[in-house]
Design a protein that fits this description.
Biased composition (Basic and acidic residues): 151-167
Helix content: 25-40%
Distance between the termini: 85 Å
GO molecular function: endonuclease activity
Family: In the C-terminal section; belongs to the transposase 35 family.
Strand content: 15-25%
Radius of gyration: 28 Å
Shape: globular
Domain Cas12f1-like TNB: 246-308
Keywords: DNA recombination, DNA-binding, Endonuclease, Hydrolase, Nuclease, Transposition
Order of helices and strands: HEEEEEEEEEHHEHHEEEHEEE
Number of helices: 6
Structural class: alpha+beta
Length: 388
């Protein structure tokens, strides 16, 4: 049953490599390498999902494969269209594809296609949304960036510690080496799942805010053009960790389920254009943009989002020409990450050292007046033992 999905996957990879080589990418190779495990997909009507038990057919004359899921599927069994069995990061996973209807709203509460909001994507702020009437939303992604940095530091430390265990060229690795690599794959997979969950939370925050504002059109600036520009080793690493394509796909999927249209436009020059007088200004180094022509001052990402909203195709009404003083909503993405609190400073950093050495012990309230203090007749413990 799953042979069709394997052949389709192989065919897509082959023709994609052929098209890229024809376009001039000579470094691309055809998929000729043997793989021990291949993802297999079963389509609707070939599998049975009952609670947390998934029944998958195998070869003719062989008993079916029963997979016990770790948690129940959050979709109705009738909406599941396909399941895919894959091995990723040292774990056996099930990828479920379901058909979900578009959300229905009461009369007068549905998103209005004529209400447009601009969305600016970034690293520090994954989503900066500017809506009509000056309403704005800022989603902070500093916890996601800290997760990337901590994972990179842990990976370097782990590689230095296990460098001596690596086998020589042409030799098989030891049992300890295989266990070390398996542990590394588990840690890397856990970090990827954490970041992906944080991106889902950030996109859900944007869609929920847009539904509250009855925004029916999201004009998103597409920054994928910066990926082709070399900007140094460190900045290129930040761009790769940004995951622009995944962020756009997550936002588009959630907007489609909410009944909101998404338009991708060119975002070039939006961070260096004043949203009030439309004149070019130097791009600020910080988060505050100031215009010397009209004395405008505001958040750089929100100013870019207001400029992106004016590029909506189709002639839909956009934000006003000037920047009204609306309400700016701040949200944080990645609250589920380890040791992330509501403080602005990353709580995973060590607290600064104080001049006092040692621990001060548990703080106790000062005794009130009129309460007798313990006298010298009380029991005292010292190095020689208890005395009276």
């Amino acid at each position: 049953m799953g042979a069709r999905s394997v052949l389709r996957r192989y065919s897509d990879a082959w023709f994609s490599a052929a098209a890229r080589r024809k376009a001039g990418a000579t470094e691309v190779r055809y998929p000729r390498r043997r793989r021990a495990l291949m993802p297999i997909r079963w389509y609707h009507g070939t599998f049975t999902l009952t609670g947390r038990t998934l029944r998958l057919p195998t070869a003719r004359g062989c008993p079916p494969l029963l997979v016990r899921l770790d948690r129940p599927v959050p979709y109705l069994p009738g909406t599941v269209r396909s399941v895919k069995l894959l091995f990723a990061d040292g774990r056996l996973c099930i990828d479920v594809t379901a058909e979900l209807p578009v959300t229905s709203y009461p009369a007068g509460h549905a998103p209005d296609p004529q209400r447009v909001a601009g969305v600016d994507l970034g690293i520090i702020h994954p989503f900066a949304v500017a809506g009509p009437g000056g309403q704005a939303l800022l989603v902070s992604g500093r916890a996601i960036r800290a997760e990337h940095r901590l994972h990179l530091a842990d990976t370097k430390r782990r590689q230095r510690a296990t460098a001596d265990r690596a086998p020589s060229r042409g030799q098989h690795g030891s049992r300890r080496w295989r266990k070390t690599r398996r542990r590394a794959r588990l840690v890397e997979g856990r970090q990827r799942r954490r970041v992906r969950q944080a991106l889902h939370e950030a996109a859900k925050t944007v869609i929920d805010w847009a539904v509250q504002q009855r925004i029916g059109t999201l004009t998103v600036g597409d920054p994928r053009g910066v990926l082709n520009q070399p900007a140094g080793r460190k900045h290129n690493l930040r761009l790769r960790q940004w995951q622009i394509g995944r962020t756009l796909q997550i936002l588009h999927d959630k907007a489609t389920l909410a009944g909101i249209r998404v338009h991708l436009v060119d975002e070039r020059g939006t961070s260096s254009t004043c949203p009030q007088c439309k004149k070019r200004i130097p791009k600020p180094a910080g988060r505050t943009m100031s215009c010397r022509h009209c004395q405008f001052a505001g958040h750089r990402d929100l100013a870019a989002a207001f400029t992106i909203a004016t590029r909506t195709p189709g002639g839909a009404p956009t934000t006003p020409a000037h920047m009204p003083g609306g309400v700016v909503t701040h949200r944080r993405a990645g609250r589920h990450l380890p040791r992330v609190a509501t403080a602005r400073r990353d709580p995973r950093r060590r607290p600064p050292r104080t001049a006092t050495a040692g621990s001060l012990g548990q703080r106790r309230p000062a005794p009130s007046r009129g309460v007798a203090r313990p006298q010298f007749g009380a029991r005292i413990h010292d190095a020689t033992g208890p005395t009276r």
